[in-house]
Amino acid sequence: MPGAAIRRVAADLKGLPRPFWLLAAGTFVYLIGVEMTYPYETLYLNGRLDVSMTTLGLILGITLLATLPLQVVGGALCDKVGRRPMLVVAILGSMILYGGLALTTDLTVIVALIAFEAAFGWAQYITASNAIIADVTTMEQRTEAFSVSRVALNAGIALGPLVALPLLARDPSFRLNFIASAVLCGGFLVIVLVWLKETRPAGVRAGSILASFRGYGDVLGDRVMLAFCLITLLPNYAFGQIWATMPVMLSDLHGVTAERWSVAMIVYGLCMVALQYPVIRILGRRDLMLLMSLSCLAQGAGIGAAAFVPWPATLACIAAIALGIVLLIPIGSTVVSRLAPVDLRGRYMGVWTLVYMGGYAMGPLLGGWALDTLGGRVSFALTGVVCALGALLFPLLCRSVRARTRAAEGPAEERRSPEEALGARLAGERPEQAL
Questions:
Q1: 146, 220, 340, 364 from 126: Cα distances, Å
Q2: What pTM, to 2 d.p., does this model score?
Q3: Which terminus of the chain is less hemmed in, N or C, by CB atoms within 10 Å?
Q4: Per-residue model confidence as pLDDT tens digits over 131-171
Q5: Domain spanning 16-198 has what CATH number?
Q6: Could you give the 3-state DSSP secondary structure of residue 99?
Q7: Where exactly are the structural domains of the chain?
Q8: CA nearest 185: which of 285, 75, 283, 93?
Q9: In CATH terms, is domain 222-435 a member of 1.20.1250.20?
Q10: pLDDT in tens, 302-327
Q11: Helix residue ranges, H only, 171-245
């Protein structure tokens, strides 16, 4: 039996098309580069440039929120000019940030670089890569494909800091890290430019730029999509607490030191890598709204309990949070891909990125206020309640999402193998020719 199960997994993974694996490989390289710098940005600005933590919080929070509208632009351009050009823009955004950090210590310039990357870097990668995965996979493959993509991403997150350590030992100023990050992001750029071809369905014609933006009227008129996005803000708000307020709360209430927090983050990373594919493999064909509820329950239980249990029981809370995130992101992306019409896929993914990043940004902004005003136990207990509310609301969409999925399964393009569907797209076959 185990051998048969392994063969089935291998066959399913082999069935994922070549463009998907190119994107996954590039994502792995990209995230190594990003994580060689991202965890150390605040240490660099605070420790080397003497920027206060209050100022840092304002810089990071305000730049992220101020650039959110550009995710709407990115979604429209993803449909208008294609996924590949927007992926190139995203990579260049990251390279400019890390290259700029290596070349300047002027805080005004650094703030401009951070804002530029927030607008054109990581967030645009999310929109473009999600659209590519939806383009090249069948309806049945998407949950698993989004999960495998997250495995590549989490592996890069785990490896990046390890690669950074010898560079930090050689150059404590972080400059060598910044340069290496830009170079590795450039490796992803080479993969995209040399091997990855455009995947936007050949029959999609977005028309003028103005018409592309008018397409958002259809997204905003999609009540199921809007309801899903609004509910998803709840677990995303909780997700935003993990990196910002949680270490402060644990330090204040349980004396968790920076070294212990590092251990907790290692446990988090290992859980993400170990659980991501098996959990989605086992549960991915269940009702998607019930899986989103399970994500809320796991995340809420971990975050809420963390304020009340001492170390090392905190590690069990971290594992529960990891399980919630393992479900939240790939399942959420799958739902949006199923709700999106083919010709609006980039715009739907742009709205999804807006919700994902906006909810995440609310975490430190509202969570920091709650931590100062209400205290650690009350604020984190309320965050657990927020997740529980999400768990109650998602099942209300079960019937609507199921009906939309059945309707979307109709076109022959979705029923063909990924190789047949992609070959037809790259050959210029229009959707009506496939019927």
A1: 11, 20, 16, 21
A2: 0.72
A3: N
A4: 899 888 887 888 788 888 888 888 887 788 778 878 888 88
A5: 1.20.1250.20
A6: helix
A7: 16-198, 222-435
A8: 93
A9: yes
A10: 999 999 999 989 999 999 999 999 99
A11: 175-194, 209-214, 216-220, 223-239, 241-244
